[in-house]
């Protein structure tokens, strides 16, 4: 990565702000809101964010299982739910395709990933699940 000095950083900040101003105006948003949304979504927008292996490891740690359990063939509830959480977070926090996610989770197909993500979404209405997912995301530095 190229290092930039303070003067160059200031010029870049101004260029970014001038590029975002029309977006804020078009959608009648405060510039602080647009900047906040940009900051939150920047890793995904620029194709970065946590690696799938990091998400799997964080979820495994949270649930007291191994990363091998998450990518393995086990179908017990104590493994399946964390696997689905990891698939949900991978879909949400990365720009990976369903096929890429399935491959990273033990060569599962895209339909399995969709099913896993769809199982977790309604569970986020539960405060305990929402907090668990939030803790995992914070642990990833997101």
Give an overview of the whole structure:
The protein is mainly alpha-helical and 142 residues long. Helices cover 73% and strands 0% of the residues. The longest helix is centred in the N-terminal third of the chain and has 21 residues, at 6-26. The two termini are 21 Å apart.
H/E element sequence: HHHHHHHH
| Share of residues in strands | under 5%
Shape by Cα distribution: elongated
SS element count, helices: 8
Portion of residues within helices: over 70%
Structural category is: mainly alpha
Low-confidence stretches: none
Radius of gyration: 18 Å
Q: Count the E strands.
A: 0
Major sheet size, sense and barrel closure:
none
- Intertermini distance: 21 Å
Average pLDDT figure: 88
Structure characteristics:
mainly alpha; 142 residues; single chain; elongated; 8 helices
SSE inventory with pairings:
Blueprint: H1 6-26, H2 31-45, H3 52-63, H4 67-71, H5 77-93, H6 98-104, H7 110-123, H8 127-139
Précis, in short:
This protein is mainly alpha-helical and 142 residues long. It contains 8 helices and no strands.
């Amino acid at each position: 990565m190229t290092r930039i000095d303070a003067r160059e950083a200031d010029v870049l900040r101004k260029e970014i702000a001038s590029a975002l101003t029309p977006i804020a105006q078009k959608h009648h948003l405060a510039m602080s809101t647009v900047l906040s949304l940009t900051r939150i979504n920047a890793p995904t927008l620029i194709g970065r964010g946590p690696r799938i292996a990091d998400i799997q490891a964080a979820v495994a740690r949270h649930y007291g299982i191994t990363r091998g359990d998450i990518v393995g063939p086990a179908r017990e509830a104590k493994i399946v739910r964390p696997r689905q959480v990891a698939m949900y977070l991978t879909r949400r926090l990365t720009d990976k395709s369903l096929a890429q996610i399935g491959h990273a989770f033990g060569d599962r197909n895209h339909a399995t990933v969709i099913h896993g993500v769809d199982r977790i979404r309604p569970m986020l209405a539960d405060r305990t699940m929402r907090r668990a997912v939030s803790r995992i995301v914070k642990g990833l530095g997101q």
